[in-house]
Amino acid sequence: MSDIPVEAAGKQDDVRRALALLNAAGARIGNSLDLETTARELLDVAVPQFCDLASVDLYESVLAGDEPRPVGPTSPQEAEQAGFHEADAARRQGPEVRLAGELPRRRRKPIGSPRGELRRVAFASAVSNTPYEYGLPDEEARTGESVIRPRDAAGEGARARANGVAAAAAQPGQPAEVGSTHCYAEHSPFATALRTGRVQNIASQDGSVPAQFGTVVQSTLAVPMVARDRVLGLAQFSRAKGSEPFGERDGALAAELAARAAVCIDNARLYRREHERALILQRSLLPPGDPEAAGLEIACRYLPGNPATEVGGDWFDVIELPGHRTAIVVGDVMGRGLRAAVAMGELRTAVRTLALTDMEPAEVLGALDEIARGLGDPRRQHPQRGNRGSDTDLSEVYLATCIYAVYDPVSRRCTFANAGHLPPIMVEPGEPALLLEVPKGVPLGVGGEPFEEIEIELPEGAMLALYTDGLVESRDHPLDEGLGRFRSALTDATEPLEDTADRVLRTLNVHHGEDDIALLVARVQGLDPEHVGDWTLPPEPRSVARARELTCEQLSAWGLDALSDTAELLVSELVTNALRYGEGNIRLRLLLERTLVCEVWDAGQVQPRRRRARDTDEGGRGLQLVDLLSTGWGSRRVPSGKAVWFQLPRPEEGKAAPDPTEALLKLF
């Protein structure tokens, strides 16, 4: 009670009651990081121990997590331009709120006029038969409250806010109900309280005049909710006719109650803002929509935890690889909060980079393990610390689980590597769901253990599910039970994947919000053998002409004659390079899916390197030509050596294919 003046404390019994009320406020207010819940806790303490009716209004910007406005004018220039003094406001508001000893001055503009709408987040009443929808057309003139009421009921308004939809406005002149937005008349005592940050005591009203709460009010305290010198909203405490009107000590006590609640509400606001920012960061690092992949039909879902839990580090990704292959990744960074989301983003970026180098899955996880240990090394994050081992923060150790798989649609074979993650589930048509036995390595960031990989041939039409632990584990049931329920939910491999993903989330009751959830479901659709051309050529000069012939014949069979000239030229360049710099037999492979991919294999280990030929050089322009005419090219390691590839888009109807002659001229 340090903020309550001694002269306002009153009698000894009143002091005891005030202390008891403040003790109750300290115990019951601020037990949640939810703004609306904290406002209701304030009213639970105040009604009926302190007043008969009460409400809490918060600025819309506060509910959105934005910074609230400061008390009073924002700058001396604004105060000078306003030319408005509190004495003038008091004169216009009546004798009960007028400041003594001041003469009214000419008014031009209000100082620090309340900006933005307020939303009524809580209301409590100890008066029986208090109407919920109340008020008269002239209510604003009598109470100073300008109100916008939503068309829907309070419950529907709450649901609309939960869905991110603003409450709709209806007829003005109706008192605010919970969930509605409103603003106060410019010269009302409520606006003055918001503007000045001071308690306004609206003394006894005539019993014949309806009050703002829909009942006869003896007196009302308009108490600004101020935290860190910023106004968050307004609390109103009213006593009905027959109760003792508010006095000076009551105003001080109300200010203390509102101040305690305001600090808790501001903490909840800051938490909500940080939680939403972390969630935005995490969602921005996930692939948008359902990604496409050759030979796979994919559906993805991500569900964040509830606002009471910090954001997690679950992620998934689908990466296109050369040769129409696809890398599928699902991972989970241990821990919560913004740092977990940032670590997830760094690991996801590293996975994409490593995948494009065409490393084997076990090698990718090995490199990721090194990266994860580097993220948690304080000497790398903070070089200025030097070798001070005592400053090592164990919370900076990043651990993550991850499963990485590479699928080849030509052979329908999938290679898995696992770093401490839950095993994938496969469902064949007409068969029950099975847990795939993938060797489970240590989590990323532990180090010291190599990762193993396993290759599995997936049946045509089979469904593959990768997920994080939030889907199958909670406080209500153990992991084994959750896995069993998940397998039972995957019953039909032919069901549309979008329906499967939605049904799984409904069946497993994932709305507990204890952890975020990532789910990726894929259906195997191998590449049609008719869309694959594969030949082996001897390492001799005539193989160049033979490769051109095979390419033209295959493209003609596919109806892609428009690509024949370009593909023939580029195949000739790659086969010639294989003869000059490679070893062993030459393998030519054409793959047709969304794009045309051509691969030339040989047994050599030396990777081709593009260089810029000088004007006087007779050679060295082959790879430059490949780069000019294709939409992408590269080389990758294969078990028998290397494969150099290029990619061409399918020609669009009515659009001519690019002329290779122009590209040849650009080289000179």
Automatic annotation (TrEMBL):
<dbReference type="InterPro" id="IPR001932">
    <property type="entry name" value="PPM-type_phosphatase-like_dom"/>
</dbReference>
<feature type="region of interest" description="Disordered">
    <location>
        <begin position="65"/>
        <end position="91"/>
    </location>
</feature>
<feature type="domain" description="GAF">
    <location>
        <begin position="34"/>
        <end position="275"/>
    </location>
</feature>
<dbReference type="InterPro" id="IPR052016">
    <property type="entry name" value="Bact_Sigma-Reg"/>
</dbReference>
<dbReference type="InterPro" id="IPR029016">
    <property type="entry name" value="GAF-like_dom_sf"/>
</dbReference>
<dbReference type="InterPro" id="IPR003018">
    <property type="entry name" value="GAF"/>
</dbReference>
<feature type="domain" description="PPM-type phosphatase">
    <location>
        <begin position="293"/>
        <end position="524"/>
    </location>
</feature>
<protein>
    <submittedName>
        <fullName>Serine/threonine-protein phosphatase</fullName>
    </submittedName>
</protein>
<dbReference type="InterPro" id="IPR036457">
    <property type="entry name" value="PPM-type-like_dom_sf"/>
</dbReference>
<dbReference type="Pfam" id="PF01590">
    <property type="entry name" value="GAF"/>
</dbReference>
<dbReference type="InterPro" id="IPR003594">
    <property type="entry name" value="HATPase_dom"/>
</dbReference>
<dbReference type="InterPro" id="IPR036890">
    <property type="entry name" value="HATPase_C_sf"/>
</dbReference>
<dbReference type="Pfam" id="PF07228">
    <property type="entry name" value="SpoIIE"/>
</dbReference>
<keyword id="KW-0378">Hydrolase</keyword>
<dbReference type="Pfam" id="PF13581">
    <property type="entry name" value="HATPase_c_2"/>
</dbReference>
